[in-house]
Write a structure and sequence with these properties.
Blueprint (H helix, E strand, L loop, with lengths): L1 E10 L8 E6 L7 H11 L3 E6 L6 E6 L4 E2 L3 H13 L8 E6 L2 E9 L5 E6 L4 E4 L4 H8 L13 E4 L3 E6 L16 H4 L7 E6 L9 E3 L1 E2 L8 E2 L3 H15 L7 E7 L7 E9 L4 E7 L1 E11 L7
Length: 304
């Protein structure tokens, strides 16, 4: 048995216990796969990130939910880079590369006008796939009605590193009544059975925001809802550029708000720029240190 230190940071907010919590482990090279999964299970956050060495980038980050390893996690990346910067582990670097299972990604670290650290993360190339399942089963699984769907926009799987089902909804009020039954997701999402479900709309609480969303976890993740999601916000940005606002060759910057319904509201800044083949996508945000704690590691196998 041994103890492992976990740092708790909240991403996409400057207020502790708002935004999206991430567990950060800075000595990932000392841990094996089972130990990482055990730590993530015991921490219980939507994601715990582990810093490890890389021979391809400045360093590597591995991401675990309580139930499985993920290819990429936006909020945990923002939190990790923010932590390394504020702990003086990045020294004066303003640009780093990270190795992930979604590829090598570029990260920028800047200071805002009020001297706050802002982390900008380039995401993987966007991908979309058609949803061919039952709309009735889909809305039943998240606790809304078919007439709550926005008929003018398609339901699509999307990914900038992690697959989610983008579900356009026609009014903000219905988000308060959503009650996901995550156990049903894999039987409804036949094309991407391990995907999450991400309902969103173009109405917002904040007049400065452009889109509002909730994010319901894959049943394999061991959690119910993700408070403020970075990767999903990135693919939402591409969706916005393609279907809501025909930007042509212009770049687009906007704000996604999320988390209000579970008292974890936060903001994600999204930058979308057309390229020769598709779009370049970046997300940006702040983070805040909450606390640190010890996990007693027994290296018992965790069933998924």
């Amino acid at each position: 048995m041994k103890y492992v230190t976990v740092y708790h940071y909240d991403a996409f907010t400057l207020k502790p216990n708002k935004g999206n919590p991430a567990g950060l482990v800075l000595n990932g090279d000392e841990l094996n796969n089972n130990e990482m999964q055990e730590i993530a299970y015991k921490v219980g956050f939507n994601e715990t990130a582990f810093l490890v060495k890389s021979d391809k980038a400045d360093f590597r980050i591995r991401y675990f939910t309580p139930g499985q390893e993920m290819n990429l996690c936006g909020h945990a990346t923002i939190a990790m880079i923010y932590a390394l910067k504020t702990l003086n582990l990045l020294m004066l670097k303003k640009h780093v590369t990270i190795e992930t299972k979604a590829g090598i990604l570029d990260i920028k670290v800047d200071l805002s006008e009020d001297n706050k650290v802002i982390v900008t993360m380039k995401q993987a190339a966007p991908q979309f796939e058609a949803f061919k399942g039952s709309k009735k089963d889909l809305v039943d699984a998240i606790g809304i009605n078919e007439d709550d769907l926005e008929d003018d926009f398609p339901i699509l799987y999307g990914s900038t590193g992690a697959w989610t089902l983008l579900v356009p909804v026609n009014n903000l009020e219905v988000f308060k009544t959503m009650k996901p039954n995550n156990s049903l997701f894999s039987t409804i999402l036949n094309e991407r059975s391990r995907a999450s479900i991400h309902p969103f709309c173009f109405e917002t609480y904040d007049p400065d925001a452009d889109m509002h969303a909730r994010h319901f976890s894959s049943p394999y993740s061991g959690t119910i809802e993700d408070a403020v999601t970075g990767t999903a916000s990135g693919i939402m940005g591409v969706y916005f550029a393609k279907y809501k606002k025909d930007t042509g060759r212009d770049s687009l910057k906007f704000i996604v708000e999320q988390g209000h319904e579970i008292n974890k509201d936060g903001r994600v800044l999204v930058n979308v720029s057309p390229n020769e083949c598709s779009y370049d996508v970046e997300i940006a945000g702040n983070a805040v240190y909450v606390n640190k704690f010890e996990i007693l590691l027994e290296d018992k196998e965790i069933s998924n």
